[in-house]
Amino acid sequence: MNKKTITGIIIALIIIVIIGVVYFASSQGGGENRVLDNQTPNKIDGNAKSLVVYFSVPETDDLDNMTQDEENSTVVVDGEVLGNTEYVARLISEQTDSDLFRLEPVTPYPTNHEDLLRKAQEEMQNDERPEIKDPIDISEYETIYIGYPVWNADLPPIINTFLENNDFDGKTVIPFCTHGGSGLAGTPSTIAEKLDNADVILNGFELYRSDMESAPEEVDSWLSDIGVK
Questions:
Q1: For the CA atoms of the chain, what is the radius of gyration?
Q2: Measured between alpha carbons, how far is residue 41 from residues 38, 111, 131, 187, 188 in Å?
Q3: What is the DSSP letter of 89?
Q4: For 198-210, how does the pLDDT look when each residue is reduced to its tens digit (9 = 90+)?
Q5: Residue 6 contacts by C-beta under 8 Å, 6 or more apart in sequence?
Q6: Beta bridge partners of 175
């Protein structure tokens, strides 16, 4: 076998491998959703009409004599007691000029810590979908920030209700969360799996409950990282 023949065989094999790689990559595309991470900046239109939707359960609204659990779930701003996620949601809304909407269940959650844990565990074990009080119409918004506390390393059930009962086709969805040590816990990927035709940002915002004092700077930095500011 001469050198020309060997060279031709090698080139042919290289072409076959390249075609195979391209075909495999295209076949893994799945649905229509595009998942955007921190390697794809400036894909978010900062001028698009945007909405910050959040779920938050502060375990008290009383400034005085807070228990440790109550302190963990709240932050006091200018004398007002806010839930951790509520505070972050307000910051994002202010820094992006977004409308703000709080998800509340028809049946309120208990504020007692142990009772809340039991209720959350029950809903998640039973795969429940709590009914949302006064649902919002999201049709006019192009970008939607979705905020939540991470429960048992997953989305709170009421977030599933919101995701499953709205049309997110063509919208950009940006998750953010507060937590007690779990980080995002893969929740942006869970959201992406549910929203086939939305652009979901995997590089969501997360803030540990003991770091709430740094929230303004952290939110500002994150918004810059994902190309909003």
A1: 22
A2: 6, 39, 35, 20, 17
A3: H
A4: 999 999 999 999 9
A5: none
A6: 146
